[in-house]
């Protein structure tokens, strides 16, 4: 485990030297996180951990983790990233994950507030990006209400990272000119905007939508999308366990049933999915070539 930490630390430090980031910029995040002498409160950094590949973690996010007094993290943050947290740093697990038991959002907000009021440098570590289905905005507003400083360190959101890893371009000239990100959780209630998801040249990515596959299919079909529209389900994207399943909108519910329990998972709907075979074939053909 320690060897893994050393490996990732060396890679990130090498990247810093390679790109010759000025020292004043290199330490900007942590300098901003220091409380002033007049204000004993700490600061909270809402940090995106990306799609669970430590090598896709930003340098700024890595630095924040290294300088944190406490890291408050969700279930979607993988062990390889948690291994980068220094031993001296307190870790607080809040278990936030779709459909799973966890602390309520108000309770998480209170933890962040209490830790910051003790003058600590707090990293709120979230899978993907804090402001894309991560409730980062809610947490930021709660901190502002209590007079606590915060900042946001973006991460690669799952739609971007996982689709790229699966060799599915979310946009492609002549095929798709727009992308819409939708949370599958809205399907549990009334959702009347299906027509906005089926315009020509559009890709739609559903987060947390596997259990709502039937509703997704019916909504898209009723709004004019054809049953032959290509669909991909990407499970455990950007990890060693990544799996990608290609189907059509017609067959989506049956495939989703067979994949019950696959989590985290994304559903990608659109003609760009059909490009994957060609892109994968080219990749396999050139697999023996040096990088």
Automatic annotation (TrEMBL):
Organism field: Vibrio algivorus
Quote the PANTHER family the UniProt record gives: SIROHEME SYNTHASE, SIROHEME SYNTHASE-RELATED
Q: What are the EC numbers? A: 2.1.1.107
Catalytic EC class: transferase
Keyword Cell wall biogenesis/degradation on entry: no
Listed name of the protein? uroporphyrinogen-III C-methyltransferase
**Biological pathway:** Porphyrin-containing compound metabolism; siroheme biosynthesis; precorrin-2 from uroporphyrinogen III: step 1/1; Cofactor biosynthesis; adenosylcobalamin biosynthesis; precorrin-2 from uroporphyrinogen III: step 1/1
Q: Name one GO molecular function term.
A: lyase activity
| Matching Pfam families | TP_methylase
SUPFAM superfamilies xrefs? Tetrapyrrole methylase
Note whether Transmembrane occurs among the keywords: no
* InterPro entries, A to Z: 4pyrrol_Mease (IPR000878), 4pyrrol_Methylase_sf (IPR035996), 4pyrrole_Mease_sub1 (IPR014777), 4pyrrole_Mease_sub2 (IPR014776), CobA/CysG_C (IPR006366), Siro_Cobalamin_biosynth (IPR050161), Uropor_MeTrfase_CS (IPR003043)
Q: Where is the Tetrapyrrole methylase domain?
A: 43-252
Its taxonomic path starts at: Bacteria, Pseudomonadati, Pseudomonadota, Gammaproteobacteria, Vibrionales
- Signal sequence span is none
Keyword list (alphabetical) reads:
Cobalamin biosynthesis, Lyase, Methyltransferase, Multifunctional enzyme, Oxidoreductase, Porphyrin biosynthesis, S-adenosyl-L-methionine, Transferase
| Gene3D superfamilies given in the database record | Cobalt-precorrin-4 Transmethylase, Domain 1, Methyltransferase, Cobalt-precorrin-4 Transmethylase, Domain 2
Q: Family membership, please give it.
A: Belongs to the precorrin methyltransferase family.
């Amino acid at each position: 485990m320690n060897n893994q930490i050393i490996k990732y630390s060396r890679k990130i430090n090498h990247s810093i030297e390679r790109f010759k980031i000025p020292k004043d910029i290199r330490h900007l995040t942590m300098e901003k996180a220091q409380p002033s002498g007049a204000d004993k409160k700490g600061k909270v950094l809402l940090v995106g951990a990306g799609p669970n590949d430590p090598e896709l973690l930003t340098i700024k996010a890595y630095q924040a983790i290294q300088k944190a007094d406490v890291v408050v993290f969700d279930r979607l943050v993988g062990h390889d990233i948690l291994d980068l947290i220094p031993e001296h740093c307190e870790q607080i697990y809040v278990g936030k994950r779709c459909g799973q038991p966890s602390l309520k959002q108000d309770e998480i907000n209170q933890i962040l507030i209490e830790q910051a009021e003790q003058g600590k440098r707090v990293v709120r570590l979230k899978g993907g990006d804090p402001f894309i289905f991560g409730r980062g905005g809610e947490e930021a507003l709660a901190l502002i209400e209590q007079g606590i400083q915060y900042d946001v360190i973006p991460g690669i959101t799952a739609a971007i990272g996982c689709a790229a890893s699966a060799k599915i371009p979310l946009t492609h000239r002549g095929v798709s000119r727009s992308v819409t990100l939708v949370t599958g959780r809205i399907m549990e209630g009334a959702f009347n905007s299906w027509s906005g998801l089926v315009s020509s040249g559009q890709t739609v990515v559903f987060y947390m939508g596997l259990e709502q596959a039937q509703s997704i299919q019916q909504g898209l079909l009723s709004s004019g999308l054809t049953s032959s529209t290509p669909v991909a389900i990407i499970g455990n994207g950007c990890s060693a366990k990544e799996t990608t399943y290609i189907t059509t909108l017609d067959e989506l519910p049956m495939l989703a049933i067979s994949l019950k329990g696959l989590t985290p998972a994304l559903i990608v709907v659109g003609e760009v999915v059909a490009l994957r075979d060609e892109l994968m074939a080219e990749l396999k053909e050139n697999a023996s070539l040096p990088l």
